[in-house]
Amino acid sequence: MYKQILRPLLFQFDPEAVHHFSFNSLKFAHRFPGISQLIKKKFTLEDKRLEREVFGLKFKNPVGLAAGFDKNAELYEELSSFGFGFIEIGTVTPKAQAGNPKRRLFRLKEDSAIINRMGFNNEGVDEAVKRLKKNTNVLIGGNIGKNKITPNEEALHDYNYNFEALFDYVDYFVVNVSSPNTPNLRALQDKEPLTQLLSHLQTKNQKKSKSKPILLKIAPDLTESQLLDIIEIVESTKIAGVIATNTTISRTGLTSENKEEVGGLSGKPLRKSSTEVIRFLSEKSNKAFPIIGVGGIMTPEDALEKLEAGASLVQLYTGFVYEGPGLVKAINQAILDKRS
Predict the structure, then answer these.
(1) The domain containing residue 251 runs over which residues?
(2) Is the Cβ–Cβ distance between 283 and 308 less than 8 Å?
(3) Catalytic residue among 179, 256, 285, 312, which?
(4) Half-sphere CA count of 69, side-chain side, radius 13 A
(5) Is 31 annotated as contributing to ligand binding?
(6) Is 255 labelled a binding residue?
(7) pLDDT, tens only, 35-88
(8) What is the pLDDT of residues 7-44, one digit of tens each?
(9) Tens-digit pLDDT profile for residues 224-265
């Protein structure tokens, strides 16, 4: 029904407007008694064999929703009804910011892809915290970034503020230094500033009564030398793992007319490069740390490919938009079928 009726209708309108419309519709629908249970019944697959324990956390299944979809922690309870094992909110920044000028979100229908240059638009970390205080049982990741106006030399203060504000309300953290839509942000992926940032957060983390996993989200455009640096940084800072990967700035092989729009590309064209990064990190590190695989997962087979390449968990974003909520259940079913 989604791909035959709903998607063609929604794809007639501006993608950012559709995103807000979908959010509001889902909020409204969940006000009615029984709607949440009906959605769960249709889209959720529960099976003990799907459970995973990764970096000390227990996931009811390995399929999560990537950051960027629920930036402000507005809809994590409702979205979890679609069968996700975990929801990652953000990217959040210390201060609210509007992001880049509109239009800033583009569908590439012929390529089953999206280009976004949102620019960390969000209401600020404190607003997210207010909503997360109401969480009862959804496993939440907190994706943190810096404000656009914060120079890289002071970025550590922004990440520290986010870390402290969110600490009691998320299950794990993701340090985002790989978005292409905040000027100079990717420079923080360089070995020295990244080591300094992660070491600082880990020092803070270890002073807590119970530390929480910190992960690093990396770009798919890193060289092999840079990826080897990432392995070394994970080892030296003792963070919990890596999310591979964020969006790409590459436009190789695209056919859609708006392919040259500035921003990060996600979706089907990212599948191969993301999987290659996962495999490289897994093999070169000798599986020393967990990896969450994200990028171009449009089918259950794509998810299995990432798991086989070395990912412990996977996340959806563009695949959820193009293929609909049934993809979550289909992936979990494929994982069970693979086991049997």
Answers:
(1) 2-339
(2) no
(3) 179
(4) 24
(5) no
(6) no
(7) 999 999 999 999 999 999 999 999 999 999 999 999 999 999 999 999 999 999
(8) 999 999 999 999 999 999 999 999 999 999 999 999 99
(9) 999 999 999 999 999 999 999 999 999 999 999 999 999 999
Task: Report d(CA 265, CA 302) in Å as an integer.
Answer: 17
Contact 325, 276 (CB under 8 A): no
Q: How far is CA 302 from CA 66, 251, 271, 331, 334, in A?
A: 16, 20, 7, 9, 11
251 is in an annotated binding site: no
For residue 192, with 0-12 CB atoms within 10 Å meaning exposed, 13-18 middle and 19 or more buried, which class applies? exposed
The pLDDT assigned to 107 comes to 97
70 annotated to bind ligand? yes
- Whose tokens are 């907190």? That residue is 142
247 carries a ligand binding annotation: yes
Q: What is the pLDDT of residue 185?
A: 82
CATH of the domain at 98: 3.20.20.70
Number of domain units in the chain: 1
Is 318 annotated for ligand binding? yes
pLDDT at 235: 97
Extract the tokens encoding 100.
Answer: 């880049």
Q: Which of 202, 74, 94 is nearest to 138 (CA)?
A: 74
Task: Supply 235's token pair.
Answer: 């080892």
CA distances from 129 to 21, 92, 123, 132, 135 (A): 23, 10, 11, 5, 10
> Among this protein's residues, is 179 annotated catalytic?
yes
